[in-house]
Amino acid sequence: MRGAVAGAGAIALPALLTACGGGPGGDGKTVTLGSNASDPMPKKAFADAFSAYAKQSEGGRKVKVNIVDHNTFQENINRYLQGKPDDVFMWFAGYRMQFFAEKGLLHDISDIWAKYEGFSDALKAQSTGADGKQYLTPYYYYPWAVFHRKSVFQKYGYTAPRTLDEYLALAKQMQKDKLIPIAFCDKDGWPAMGTFDYINMRSNGYEFHKNLMAGEESWTDNRVRDVFDTWRSILPYCQPGANGRTWQEAATSLQKKQTGMAVFGLPHPGQQFPEDERDDLDFFPFPEIGAEHGQDAVEAPIDGFLLAKKSKSLKNDKTMESAKDLLSWLATGEAEDVYLAGDPNNIAVSDRADTSKYTPLQKKAVELVSGARQISQFLDRDTRPDFSSTVMVPAIQDFINDPKDVDGLVHGIERQKKTIFTSES
Amino acid sequence: MTAAAPASGAAEPAPPRRRRGHRIRTGRIGVHAFLLTVSLAFLAPLLLAVYASLRPYEETSEHGYFSLPRKLSFDYYQRAFSDSEMTKYFINTLLIAVPGVLITLFFASFTAFCVARLRVRGSLLLLMLFTAGNLLPQQVIVTPLYVLFNRIPLPYWMSDSMTMFDSYWAVLSVQIGFQIGFCVFVLANYMRTLPQEILEAAIVDGAGVWTQYLRITLPLCRPALAALGTLQFTWMYNDFLWALVFISDGDKLPVTSALNNLRGQFFTDYNLLAAGSVIVALPTLIVFLLLQRHFIAGLTLGAGKG
Amino acid sequence: MPLLRTPGGGPPDPRPKAPAARDAPGAARRTGARTRASARRRGPRRFTRRDLAVIGLLLGIPVLLDMVIVWGPTLASVLLSFTSWDGIGDISWVGLRNYENLFTAYPAFWPAARHNLLWLAFLGLVATPFGLLLAVLVDRGVRFSRFYQSTLYMPVVLSLAVVGFIAQLILSRDQGALNAVLGNTADPTDWLGDRDLNIWMILLAAAWRHTGYVMILYLAGLKAVDPSLKEAAAIDGASEAQTFFRIVFPTLRPVNVIVGVITVIEALRAFDIVYAVNKGRNGLELLSVLVTDNIVGEASRIGFGSAIAVVLLLFSLGFVVTFLVQEIRGESRR
User: Fold this and answer.
1) Residue C56 falls inside a structural domain
2) Which C residues in the span 111-140 are in contact with B, Cβ-Cβ below 8 Å?
3) Rounded-to-integer distance, Cα A354 and Cα A342, Å
4) Tell me, what's the pLDDT at C217?
5) Rounded CA separation C316/B181 (Å)
6) Whether C151 contacts B43, CB under 8 Å
7) Cβ–Cβ of B248/A71 closer than 8 Å?
8) In whole angstroms, what is the distance from residue B212 CA to residue B201 CA?
9) Where are the extended beta strands (E) located within chain C?
10) pLDDT tens-digit profile, chain B (306 residues)
11) Region of poorest pLDDT, from A316-320, B120-124, B261-265, C260-264
12) How many CB pairs under 8 A join B and C?
């Protein structure tokens, strides 16, 4: 019990103490980096990349990584950036990055961005904040598309559809062939968002998607209703019970040839395939709905690196220099090659990256994104996080549950959107 | 205990009792059957989880979880332990949970002692304060505490973040502050049932408050303390919210986050996660098994034995 | 405990020495009355300076901690519920707007409130009595009672991750064990996705954990009941059920209070099971989940989330006040 008393004293003590001078300051050469790559494969691939950086660095610069699991990192990002962030951290492109830039939690890196080579204009747009300055160093991305098995398409003589009508006709044929046409899942809350985004961008274009996500268009607009109406026409061909199915189960049904197609991102379906069946996986871009927008936009979430403004060691000019040196290196093709050698589920953003070792699927993904007129990020990355998580996730699950009441649905979304987007100003 | 406590009704000699004894015996079988059924029903999900953790993911995703095994192994256990660097996180958890439980029990028992035994002025108010505080959902206090901790500076030797935020002190003090309420409530209730004359005898002997608490009241509370200790250890051990909110350095996170490390951004091998969960659940189970004797057999102390 | 037998000092024990009179609550009531009497007699000088210092320090620290950690932030949250704040920028006063939005424009709110009440009813009317029943049966001294109590307690120690996994394991529509056992592969039941069904499945899971917990507490309480009480009742010809409800159950009052409070806490703070299953969406909304979604996660609608928290706070205060009133009544009866 004595120990307990002493312990108790120590607990009360901190409140009374004030900090007296610093601990060890940075040496200016070690850059700390907050990572959300907790999965074994990316974790190892990043470790390879950072040690490659240390090796090529002439001044003996190195990276000290702070890994927090992906989910926790995301939940905590607000507190992390305001509390004790690392110098560099991994995050997403788009609105979700701009939000923090606007709050003054990110460092402007326009000076080094100007020297980056091999990035497209679409990438630059996604790395830029609302104030026109660059904040993000993009690293890799993964496109979304409609995935299927080559062997299934061969067996029944299917061909990849180009338009919505062809898509629906194919689905109808699959039903006749005793396949469930489209694997469908939304228990996790995000997978169905990909379908929503694509129908929206195919019918109304990327600009509308962007503005709708930014809260500038009304959800009761007929164009939004059209999206839900179109989606409803597809639903009869989708797996029932989507709200109770994880994406892994949906991908497994594709692998087991119970379902014919599925809207996924590049890393998703392959993980549910045994290694020797992965070559059988193929995809086609989400079909065209209106000729005006064709298949222009591709949904391809970008991950990259940013500088945290509240990092204490970045106040040291030497550390800042090292951090920028790290970012500049990460923006090169070689840096991306090192990473992707260890994680073939994504593709490099730089056109200087070496694609010769890519799998056929990766090569096809490169074709898809390089042919894209616009690149969108994904519903939950293109809008405010509070809007996507507290409004859109339940709304889409509601829609799947009861696809008929579009009117009630869009009014509900619009009412909540107003409360969220107006609270900002 | 007095001699007037026969083992069971079956031993009674009177004729009307004999009939009842027979009924009791058949009743016993019924009780066993019932308890066994319920126990198995309670155990079945756990056994299924353990079973899944012994099988490769490909197999269960191919054939479903309820299917015959083709390959059983402990590979996942080894992987779960090494992949998630469990030892490191396990130590972090113990750094929080062990002092947390001890300090909580110490302060709570003293407070309960003041409230229930000394009956200091305002006892009821204190009791309400602590009890009501424990009914609040944890999420309510997250934001103000975050802001507070971010502003409390700590010297480097206490926290390498130089603030209360991102230090064990934050998690520990919240754990204690939040759990004390419940413990005070339970202990105060328990201490009321202890015979008061023991204390009075001690007061006459000239014992001070500290002695009355430590030497006289606390030993009588052993069962309640053991029960609370088990529950508190389980809660603090399994908690993830406080660490999630107040720690930003991945190396300081508790063992619950080691499990999150087994969960991927996209892909989660649930069988691996199950193996990890079984490993992580073991310490709480051991604490329960160690302490259960004290808190189940011991409660008679307060009432009959002397 | 030699002190117990110390004859000296205190006022003469007025109680008869019969063992039956030593039952816990009876003793408590009597001793309670006596303490008051003796406290009054001893007057204000009953603590020495050193005593006061010990009390001041060791009572002061927990009270301070409770104020700083629990009540201060709670009050701050109440204030925040009248503001709009994203956790980063400026805080602006918005009056009752958050509450208005909550009641009129947040579709998840009413289902969540309903689910919390349902949770309370289910735990209170089903899980808690079931736990009591199990405790009574185990307490009858049957063989293997240690095995039973350990088994029944086991769900209590499980962490969030494993509960979510077990739900998936058993209830998943495509791969779960339940549908496999029932053999309805043609039109499988969507236990977790169907929003008329999933809350009941989750309530069962919650009861699974709650029962073991309640059972252990009652078991501890039952061990404290003097067996001679039951003997006396049996001699009077009371049936087992009569003995339990008239004699044993009333003596369990302290445990009942604890179990009651725990049941309320569990129902109002319920969080982890639904969060592990599907983040508390699609028919599994709970107030605590809504608070988490808005405050803890990336979303940071601090003002709005605090308003939900205040509603939850009012719920709990309702129970606290009820408890307080009862406690005061009980006190005056003593």
Assistant:
1) no
2) 134, 137-138, 140
3) 14
4) 85
5) 14
6) yes
7) no
8) 10
9) 83-84, 92-93
10) 333 333 333 333 444 444 555 556 667 788 888 999 999 999 998 898 889 889 888 787 777 777 788 888 888 898 888 877 888 899 999 999 999 999 999 999 999 999 888 888 888 888 888 888 877 778 888 889 998 998 888 888 888 888 888 899 999 999 999 999 989 988 988 888 788 888 888 888 888 889 889 988 898 888 889 888 988 998 899 888 888 889 888 888 888 877 777 776 666 777 888 888 888 888 888 888 888 877 665 444 333 332
11) B261-265
12) 355
Q: Where are the domains of chain A?
A: 26-142+302-375, 144-299+384-424
Domains observed in chain B: 9-75 (no CATH), 83-303 (1.10.3720.10)
Q: Kindly report the CATH number that applies to the domain delimited by A144-299+384-424.
A: 3.40.190.10
**d(Cα C323, Cα C329) in Å, to the nearest integer?**
10
C28 domain residue, yes or no = no
Residue with tokens 């709050």: A103
Q: Give per-residue burial for B32-56: e unless 16+ CB within 10 Å, then b.
A: eeebeebbeebeebbebbebbbbbb
Nearest 5°: phi and psi at C149? Answer: -65, -35
Subunit contact C297:A385, Cβ cutoff 8 A: yes
Q: Are A215 and A156 in contact (CB under 8 A)?
A: no
Alpha-carbon span A305 to A97, nearest angstrom: 10
- The count of domains in chain C is 1
Q: What's the CA dihedral at C37, C38, C44, C49 to 10 degrees?
A: -150
CB contact (8 A) between residue C24 and residue B64: no
- Sort strands A62-67 and A30-35 into parallel, antiparallel or unpaired: parallel
Domain range holding C163? 109-284
Inter-chain residue contact A7 with B99, CB threshold 8 Å: yes
Is C88 in contact with A389 (Cβ distance < 8 A)?
A: no
Q: Nearest Cβ partner of C107 from A75, A394, A420?
A: A394
* A–C CB contacts, 8 A cutoff, strictly below: 115
List, as ranges, residues 9-48 from B with C-beta within 8 Å of A. none
**Residue B121 corresponds to which tokens in the numbers above?**
């002025």
Q: Do C193 and A105 touch (CB under 8 A)?
A: no
A390 contacts chain B (CB < 8 A): no
**CATH class of the domain comprising A26-142+302-375:** alpha beta
Q: How far apart are CA A196 and CA A231, in angstroms?
A: 8
What lies within 8 Å, CB to CB, of B81 at 6+ separation is B87, B276, B279
Q: Which residue of C48, C138, C175 is the best one to mutate when testing the B interface, meaning the one whose CB has the most B CBs within 10 A?
A: C175
Predicted ipTM of the assembly: 0.81
**Residue B100, amino acid:** G
Q: Are strands A88-92 and A30-35 parallel, antiparallel or unpaired?
A: parallel
Return d(Cα C33, Cα A318) in angstroms, integer: 74
Q: What is the pLDDT of residue A397?
A: 95
Q: What whole-number distance in Å separates Cα of residue A37 and Cα of residue B264?
A: 9
Q: Answer left, alpha or beta for residue A368, where phi above 0 means left and psi between -120 and 50 means alpha.
A: alpha
A78 contact partners, CB below 8 Å, separation of at least 6: C87, C88, C298, C300
Residue A199 to residue B240: CA distance in whole angstroms: 38
User: Can you list the alpha helix ranges (DSSP code H) found in C177-285?
Assistant: 177-182, 198-223, 227-235, 240-242, 249-251, 253-269, 272-278
CA distance C181 to A262: 29
Beta strands in C25-150 (DSSP E): 83-84, 92-93
* Residue whose structure tokens are 């107040």: B246
In sequence order, which residues have a C-beta less than 8 Å from that of residue B73 and are 6 or more positions away?
Answer: B54, B56
The pairing of strands A180-183 and C83-84 is unpaired
User: Residue C38: what residue type?
Assistant: S
Residue C280 lies in a domain: yes
Model confidence, pTM: 0.83
